[in-house]
Specification:
mainly alpha; transmembrane helix; transport; MFS_dom; 422 residues; single chain; Growth Hormone, Chain: A; MFS; sodium:proton antiporter activity; two-stranded parallel sheet
């Protein structure tokens, strides 16, 4: 017999959303706030500065490592205990990083910290989709995207300022304390959505955990061409942005000789554009279906990437590079949450497993692609980065075209003034 979900009070709804937003922000901030200090980290450990992008790549790999298992475990035992355990793991890894004594230990702890990102993708995102209706869920995903993007927007600036008074080790201590506070908020406010009968009559029943059954479900899911195309497109569309985050310290600080504060300031136009795209998405949701929104987003997305490619051929100044990245980022902000929603519901399987598969595929593409762009010279010249980032982003178009060709979604209903979240 399923439990009945008692109507969630508005205070708990707000606390739940803020707690998830806080955890997501921390999982990204653990990377971005440290980027201005990465040259100091490699210097302290006598490591090659070319290892700077590896810190981001390993963090993304960590986000993939356990997603394949986290999703099915959340389907079986519930979203709440899994997210609480993920938040605790992240906090412990941050505390341990403050005492690391070698670059190898540092990278290992970066990998473990990245697993927190896997919990965000495989547990908190499906929980939001199950608690809220479609229109509200897409809006919240877009808003969470804005929260996550505050990290690369403000993280380098905040990191640059904090490094005036704190060491990079003390930054990790602050992240660990923040994770403990977020854990308490999740414990107090997060509802369970698995095995709970909601007032709308729908239920996400627990799914028995079986290795053979899990492998079979993943095999079926990976045989779904529409799902695979959408997941690949999600990773490739974000790859230029991820590559920029990874190599920006090398390009701006080491190559161009900018200060850490100037490095942080140059991030503002790019990530402000993504946030602006998410806000545009929110305004267009009531009058456009999701495939149409993605088609509209492709105009600034493609124009920005083509400008990047032109800059690579004709010679890229920093201003032109940032302008092209910002235009591309605007399109990415409009399309990302809509494409994620379509990908999540392109399969009838449980949303924990589907979300985990989306995360594994897209984050693997971003992590491997970012490392490849750095390895072939993306961190040594502006023109080289512009060329490879543009090509990577444009590679998403064939998969996206095939996916959208079969996508049909009804217009989203307008939100009611008062909504029962039960």
């Amino acid at each position: 017999m399923h439990r009945t979900l008692i109507a969630i009070q508005p205070v708990q709804v707000i606390g739940f959303c803020l707690a998830i937003a806080g955890f997501e922000l921390l999982t990204y901030m653990a990377s971005d706030i440290l980027m201005p200090a990465m040259l100091a980290v490699t210097g302290e450990f006598n490591a090659d500065p070319r290892q700077v992008p590896n810190a981001l790549s390993l963090y993304l790999v960590g986000g993939v490592c356990l997603q394949w298992l986290i999703g099915p475990l959340a389907d079986r035992f519930g979203r709440r205990p899994l997210l609480l355990s993920g938040c605790a793991l992240f906090g412990i890894a941050c505390a341990a990083a403050s005492a690391s004594t070698s670059i190898e230990a540092f990278h290992l702890l970066r990998l473990i910290q990245g697993m927190g990102l896997g919990y965000v993708v495989a547990v908190s995102y499906p929980a939001l989709q199950e608690v809220f209706c479609e229109a509200d869920a897409v809006r919240l995903m877009a808003l969470l995207g804005n929260v996550a993007l505050l990290s690369p927007l403000l993280g380098p600036l905040l990191g640059s300022l904090l490094l005036e008074w704190l060491s990079w080790r003390q930054l990790f201590v602050a992240l660990a304390v923040s994770a403990a506070l977020v854990w308490l908020a999740l414990y107090a406010c997060m509802p369970e959505t698995v095995g709970v009968l909601r007032r709308d009559g729908q239920v996400q029943a627990p799914i028995a955990f079986s290795w053979r059954h899990i492998l079979r479900r993943y095999r079926v899911l990976l045989g779904n061409r529409r799902f695979l195309g959408a997941s690949l497109a999600l990773g490739l569309m974000s790859l230029p942005l991820i590559a920029w985050i990874g190599v920006a310290p090398l390009l701006l600080i080491q190559l161009l000789g900018l200060s850490t504060l100037e490095y942080g300031l140059w991030q503002i136009p790019v990530f402000s554009a993504v946030i602006g795209g998410n806000l545009i998405l929110d305004r267009l949701l009531l009058s456009h279906d999701l495939p149409r929104l993605i088609h509209l987003a492709l105009w600034p997305y493609c124009l920005g990437l083509l400008t990047l490619m032109g800059a690579a051929v004709l010679g890229a100044s920093l201003g032109v590079l940032i302008g092209a990245l910002s235009l591309y980022a605007l399109g990415l902000g409009i399309s990302n949450a809509a494409l994620y929603r379509l990908a999540l519901f392109s399969s009838d399987d449980s949303k924990g497993l589907v979300s985990a598969a989306i995360g594994m595929i897209s984050i693997t593409v971003m992590g491997a692609g970012g490392s490849l762009i750095a390895a072939i010279g993306g961190g040594s010249q502006l023109e080289s980065f512009a060329l490879w980032a543009a090509l990577a982003g444009l590679l998403a178009l064939p998969s996206l075209y095939r996916f959208l060709r079969g996508a049909t979604t009804a217009l989203l209903p307008p939100p009611t003034p008062k909504r029962n979240f039960g």
